[in-house]
Amino acid sequence: MSNNFRNNKFVRIPRIFWDLTTNQVLTMQFCHGQKVDDVVFLKGMKINPEKVAKKLLEVFAEMIFIHGFLHGDPHPGNILVSIEGQGGFSLVLLDHGICKKLDEEFRLEYCQLWKALILLDSRKIQHLAERFGVGKYYRYLPIIFSGRTIDSKSGIGKGMLVEEQKKMKQHLKALEMEDISSFMESLPSNFLIILRTDELLRSTVSKLGASKWVRLLTYGKYASLGLSLKSNPCSGVTNLVLWMEKLKRCLNKFYGKMSAAGKEAICR
């Protein structure tokens, strides 16, 4: 973990003192800081909580989509905010007892999944769900990760429309306990630890006051970068910029239609 973030000025990993470490005792550097969700502390130190949330998401997105090596227990007690750092603060990652090396094949397919989730590419989502062994439940993946249905008409991070909520409830009512158990049992271990990690991050980010949009955009950006670096490291940034421009155009087009529809309704 320390090696992966050696060039990241916002991340600190406690150093191990090997000369004071034995088979029974692990001696590490003591790092000062407060729990990452301590909003009172952050505001008292004039640190923007939303900026901390964004940086936290970027750090874990980099682990998942770029490094393929994940800290799987990011509850607030394991992540401190230190006032030391070039950016005005740094994140201290503690307790590396639950770390997971993601298979390279899984990492790439998970990158593809997030790109498909952002663009709501239902065919790609279904294909990847089959690869993950949960093809029967592919339509639930967008709900789990992005809060949208697979045929959603709402914008990213905007939640579901009333009609979509009703349709989703009907689908969920049709599910039986055996379906839920079957879904969870068929998920790869890589998927399970990512789900757990993501749930903990969502809770922290929410306490810090960041919008859902920040998480979705961050994951989408790093997923695209993870794919670009694999195909051609030199063109990674270029491909990322092109894909983000495409995403921006799609969003502008969507919001343009929504705005026009709203004005028409007011005129009527």
TrEMBL record:
Domain (ABC1 atypical kinase-like) ranges: 2-127
Record protein name field: ABC1 atypical kinase-like domain-containing protein
InterPro entries in the record: ABC1_dom, Kinase-like_dom_sf, Mito_struct-func_regulator
Pfam families in alphabetical order: ABC1
Domain of life: Eukaryota
